Amino acid sequence: MSIKDKNETPILAFYSLFCRFFLQAAPTGYCVPDNGKYHNYFTVAEQLTTLDNLVGMQHMIDMNNSTTSFKGTCYCQTGKNESYDHAYITSVVNPALQPTTSRNNISYYYLNKYLDIGLQIYILGVGYTTVPFDHLPNDIGGTYRCHNGVSSQTTFYSGGSGFIYLYVKKQFTGTITIPSMVMANIYATIDPRTVSNEIISDVIVQGSVTVPQTCEIDEGQAIMIDFKSILASEFSANRGQAVSSRKITRQVNIKCSNMMFTDTLGATFHASAATADSTMVATDNPDVGIKIYDKHNREINVNGGELEAETTKMPVTLEGETLGTLTFSSAPASATGSRPAPGPFNGTATLTIEIGH
């Protein structure tokens, strides 16, 4: 009987110590948002320079929403009346996004054939962190206590600010639209081991990225063509016949920025037509039109006709500037076949530079 008592005593002592440790353990559990999943919108409206648009360049865009916060409730599965001063944040990248590469500690995902996209979000007490990440301690701005297993009105600051990263895989010009997409889901627990299936917030990325191209003709000056004085008798009785002796040829200069080596230059001509077949520019004298010719002396349609441009300087990598010239001719013509009334005549047209990729 005495031997049996000695064997039982250590077992009871161990059980007592185990219970004491269990009651003093920190609470474990997951957190949920009080008003449904909180959406952090990162709206991009970025314009890249020629340098930014080089293959291999990384471009960082600041998404600063430092005042963003929302309330949540945490469920304490153990330590039901204990306190905690950190939430542990986990971010999971949208599985629909295809990972591509990692550069300078940024994980990139496929956006399109020109750009990959990466994301960092701000964790209070940790700083800016590349997604995805697992159970990082978020300073929640105070101490919260579990009351009967529930802690209400925990304030979360994570996910509201961050950086969008763009990696250029292929040069582009114009505008790329970033469709509205969830890039990362965020989860919170009150210990570093619990796995939560409750999304407290997400990061939605949307917007556009633009590499602008600009062109100007003759440094933005209007192109003036003066036919001087013309005798009314020089106009033919045949409608559409040009006064070829009065034809004037002009060469204008073109300067374009943010160009790539593969880009080509051209132009289109737009004006109000004097006739239904759009062979002449209308003037304020109904009997007078103006014929337009390309550099090969071919008549063009004055409502969208094309003109060839010649490139005289290819872009230099660090400048992206292309120079060129555009040659065309114009001549007065008989719009109706009737002899025009004496007096000045005027017509206007627009030359639009076209960039081919």
List descriptors.
mainly beta; Immunoglobulin-like; 2 domains; 8-stranded antiparallel sheet; 6% helix; 50% strand
Report, as a whole number of angstroms, the end-to-end distance: 98 Å
Percent range for β-strand residues: over 45%
Number of helical runs?
Answer: 1
The quaternary organization reads as single chain
Q: What is the domain tally?
A: 2
Overall SS class: mainly beta
Q: Spell out the helices and strands N to C.
A: HEEEEEEEEEEEEEEEEEEEEEE
CATH fold title of the largest domain: Immunoglobulin-like
Rg value: 36 Å
CATH hierarchy, class of the largest domain: Mainly Beta
Give the uncertain stretches in residue-range form.
Answer: 1-25
Mean pLDDT: 86
Largest sheet: 8 strands, antiparallel
Query: Which range best describes the helical content: under 10%, 10-25%, 25-40%, 40-55%, 55-70% or over 70%?
Result: under 10%
Morphology call: rod-shaped
Structure summary, number of beta strands: 22
Going by CATH, the architecture of the largest domain would be: Sandwich
Subcellular location: Fimbrium
Organism: Enterobacter agglomerans
GO biological process, one term: cell adhesion involved in single-species biofilm formation
InterPro entries: Adhesion_dom_fimbrial (IPR000259), Adhesion_dom_fimbrial_sf (IPR036937), Adhesion_dom_sf (IPR008966), Bact_Fimbrial_Adh_Pro (IPR050263)
